[in-house]
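Researcher: Going back to the complex we discussed earlier. I've cleaned up the inputs and rechecked each line, so this should be the final set. Can you rerun the prediction on the complete assembly and write out the structure?
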Amino acid sequence: MSPAWTVELLKVRKSPVTRTAFGAMAAIAAFFSVGAALLAARGTAEGSLAGAKVAAMVDGVGWSAVGGAFGQIVSVLWLLGTGVVAAWTCGREYSDRTLGQLLALPTPSSRIATAKLGSVMLASSVAAVAGALLALVSGVVAGMGPPAVGDLQTMGAGVLAGVAGAWLALPFAWVGTVGRGYLPAVGALLGIVMVSQVVVLLGGGSWFPWAVPSLLVGAGGAEAAADVSALGVVLVVGVGAAAWASTVTTWSRLQLV
Amino acid sequence: MTSLEARGLVRRFGDVTAVDGVDLDVVAGQVHALVGLNGSGKTTLLRMLAGVLRPDAGVIRLTSGTEPSGAVVGHLIDAPAAYPELTVEQNLTSAALLRAVPRALVPHAVTRAATALGIGDLLTRRAGGLSLGNRQRLGLAAALVHDPQLVVLDEPTNGLDPAGVLAVRRLVLERARTAGCAILVSSHHLDELARMADRITVLHRGRVVGSLEPQTPDLEVQLFAMAARADGIDVTEELSRPTLAPKPEARS
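Model: Rerun complete. Updated structure for the full complex:
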């Protein structure tokens, strides 16, 4: 493993910021999805008010409801959580005034940036898989029985939605770099989440990249999922790739001004 | 043995010229001190010489023929790189790896650098729990972990107690005298610089305005006078005036 990857993976593994963020994301996704399914079942069976409300938000009962709820929460939570971590990872040396120690080294700063982004994506993806496994274990413990193959596929789609959300969070690493700190990037992240809501309400969700993952896993219903265009999927891939390339390029030109 | 030559260095920030045509030589085996009042351009010049800031004009070259790069230059500029979540050992290991120390040699390099800075007993401590002075020692150890030929240090004794100041002085002198390093250091502690520098260059408003002899008295007065003369202010009268009333003679 290259020095840059060794160092950045070590920082991701040891940092309380990343451990807390990704641990909390996995736990919230698991317990929210199983809890939502249990509440929905109670609402259907016992006329519970809370259950009735949740039942309106998730499709079906049992593992079907778990898979649907998992995808919906992961697609949003991974964008938010990974966005904060990515911004902090690329902006922390500015905020701590230690950037100079990462410049003019035998290890090019572009490689350090690549390792930073890769480490965040890797940790975020592992957290998505961990969240799915935790949801499956929690569901079995809660008495749902073993999931069917189709339910596992739905959970898998949820994991992919999480990875897509993390990929769409990479622009905030770039904002953290050009903004010389993570706070501007956190502001931009909150802005994108709000803009996404407005764009979906105005009917542009099928192509707006930050809305596409949640629509694909059913946040807007089956009809909205079917309406997602190929352009929207291409834009999801393109936005993350462009953010990765821009961040690495910006880092390769960094100076301690 | 590597020396550094800088010729005609210029760096502007908008309308402000922070460094304006500076020539500087940092000779192998010598400690070269850079002094000046606040805003004189010291840090900007050090950043360019360390390679973390590009000059608008001028050249920087090493006499060894190699490009100034992190493989041969060690620097501590701004805050020390002490990641709070990592231990002292992990911080130094990271610094060594990023500075291209071969993996097999990293443990030895880490131990040697930590011992030289007097933090060998703190290797398992998290950097977040270190005092300001020990974080500075960690930053210095990280700057020197790869045994560089040229060392650039900006205010290296910041936050250090007297024992730390002494350790840094001994280390700087050992690196210059024994290892033949070229060392460039800036500080406002002129008395400390007088104890370790071979040459002192005075920078004022981005230009070199003279040099001081390290062994002469009243370096602060000389520095102030040099800066004032560069601004066209005649301070001869003020400097010749006694600062304290003469002590009364003891009764016999």
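Model: Worth noting: The interface with chain B takes residues 3-4, 6-7, 10-11, 14-16, 96-107, 112, 255-257 of chain A (CB under 8 Å).
Researcher: Good, that matches what I expected from the previous run.
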